[in-house]
Each structure stands twice: as C-alpha cells, then as structure tokens.
Amino acid sequence: MTDFDHCGPFSEWLWPRLGMQYSSPLGWAVEIERAAEAADIQPLDMFFDLLDEFRAGRDNAAQEAPR
Predict the structure, then answer these.
(1) pTM of the entire structure?
(2) What is the mean pLDDT of residues 56-61?
(3) 3-class secondary structure, 62
(4) Backbone phi, then psi, for 57, in 5-degree steps?
(5) 31 near 14, Cβ under 8 Å?
(6) 3-state secondary structure (DSSP) of residue 63
C-alpha cells in the first residue's frame, strides 16, 4: 500500500480535512477537484498545498514520537 492508495494514509487524512465524514467512492483526486472548484482555485494548486500539509503533519508526528 502506498500513501496514495484509495484507503491509504493520505486518503484517511484528507477526508476530515475536506470536511467529509466518510471516504468518497470517487477517490481523493475527484474530491480535491470538487473542493478546488468550490474554493475557486486550481485543483493542482490545492493538491500540492494539501500534500505539503499532509507531509508536514507526518514529519511533526515522527519528530514528536518517543524514541
């Protein structure tokens, strides 16, 4: 499984971030397109902003984990 599989870590992080209670059967790419359209921004811009946020959260969690 990769971060970007339908039920991978990115998807699980993304659904609540987009205000969704459940995963979308259409997948994360379609839901990002829909959210970008509603926010009047480019889908790729939104994707990379979300990806940066996701990675930053993972990096912070890894740094805060007890060793």
Answers:
(1) 0.79
(2) 77
(3) helix
(4) -65, -40
(5) yes
(6) helix
pLDDT single digits (tens) 7-25: 788 999 999 999 999 888 8
**Distance between CA atoms of residues 66 and 16, nearest Å:** 26
CA distance 30 to 40: 15
pLDDT at 40 over 70: yes
- How does DSSP assign 2-58, residue by residue? -TTSTTSHHHHHHHHHTT-SS--TT-HHHHHHHHHHHHTS-HHHHHHHHHHHHHHHH
| Sequence-distant (≥ 6) Cβ neighbours of residue 46 within 8 angstroms | 32, 35, 36, 39
Position 27, amino acid:
G
Q: Which of 1, 4, 20 has the alpha carbon at shortest distance from 55?
A: 4
